[in-house]
């Protein structure tokens, strides 16, 4: 199986998800929380790895390395999404923060990037992880998007375990 179109699909999906996040931030006016920012970073890394895999078109060991990086990124992103939905499901008196020191860690991480409007828009958070500022059909944005991230993680795992069949047209008894 040629995995190159799959890598392109993952790259385009990451661009769409990041574009949707920026749309909700800049057009709708929703402030991202630290978990949202962390998920954006995961999507950026996932998209970059998918783009590199598409351009490189690896086989053998290289394909497994790219696949493993994509699976880990997908699982990380799905884990963030599930954690945020879990935080939203807690009663207000039991609701925890986004994570111990996550805001401080993100601020330290951001200082390594060139400061400018792009960095500020992509990586600065101003909302709490348990605030629901927008919903549709009674579902918040994290509840609507978490199935997408979970399905993406399953898709990347399926792609990783798919055999790369470069012998198209040859007879095989395997």
Automatic annotation (TrEMBL):
Residues 1-6, 59-64, 163-174 are cytoplasmic. Residues 24-41 are periplasmic. Keywords: Cell inner membrane, Cell membrane, Chaperone, Disulfide bond, Electron transport, Membrane, Oxidoreductase, Redox-active center, Transmembrane, Transmembrane helix, Transport. Signal peptide: none annotated. It is found in: Cell inner membrane; Cell membrane. The chain crosses the membrane at residues 7-25, 37-55, 67-86, 144-161. Disulfide bonds join 33-36. The keyword Membrane applies. It is a multi-pass membrane protein. Its main location: membrane. Required for disulfide bond formation in some periplasmic proteins. Acts by oxidizing the DsbA protein. Belongs to the DsbB family. This is Disulfide bond formation protein B. The gene is dsbB.
């Amino acid at each position: 199986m040629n995995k190159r179109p799959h890598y392109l699909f993952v790259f385009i999906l990451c661009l769409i998800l990041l574009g949707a996040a920026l749309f909700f931030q800049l057009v709708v006016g929703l402030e991202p929380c630290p978990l949202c920012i962390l998920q954006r970073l995961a999507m950026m890394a996932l998209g970059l790895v998918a783009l590199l895999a598409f351009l490189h078109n690896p086989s053998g060991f290289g394909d497994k390395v790219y696949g493993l990086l994509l699976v880990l990124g997908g699982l990380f992103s799905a884990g963030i999404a599930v954690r945020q939905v879990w935080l939203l499901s807690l009663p207000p008196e039991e609701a925890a923060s986004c994570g111990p020191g996550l805001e401080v860690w993100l601020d330290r991480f951001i200082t390594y990037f060139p400061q400018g409007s792009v960095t500020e828009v992509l990586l600065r958070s101003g909302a709490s992880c348990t605030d629901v500022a927008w919903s549709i059909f009674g579902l918040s944005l994290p509840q609507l998007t978490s199935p997408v991230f979970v399905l993406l993680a399953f898709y990347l795992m399926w792609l990783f375990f798919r055999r790369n069949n470069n012998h198209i047209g040859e007879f095989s008894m395997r």
